[in-house]
């Protein structure tokens, strides 16, 4: 038996979009169940995201601190952002986010992991990259706005982040999944065995 997620799509008898927002929307589908019954399912339609676990030469992860209104918290996170353009290359988006949110560039990029953040109620797919060989980016800093105007930055050792995650002090999905995936990769085949930065991503197909 192979433990692997597989694509599948059940019959949809009807669909509507009762809400359309600036970046996301809500869709309602009438889905045919295996027993023939039809059940209504509401979910958020999301363009997808990328996140960057940027690891420096001192084994520290670059973090940002940002207010997140839905959960009424300021969260420590890794740089991340939406795939604003359909079909956008996720690596290019990740490089942009690292530059805009931290004014940092990286010389080595790998795919760390791919996740669905909340597949029971949202179709958001996130690709988390590992970025190494960090250096300050050239040029002017990106002009922040809205929640990003008071963003704080920090570099925290991997071991400290693991302790904080397991203690319940850190809650951001991409930070948690990224750090624990990093530790698991080190304990397995090593970071150089991770997928290349341009590895296919069926959840959000892209052009090179």
From TrEMBL:
Name the record gives this protein: NUDIX hydrolase
Q: Which GO terms describe its molecular function?
A: hydrolase activity
Q: Which UniProt keywords apply?
A: Hydrolase
Mind telling me which InterPro entries this protein's record contains? Answer: NUDIX_hydrolase-like_dom_sf, NUDIX_hydrolase_dom
Q: Which residues form the Nudix hydrolase domain?
A: 44-178
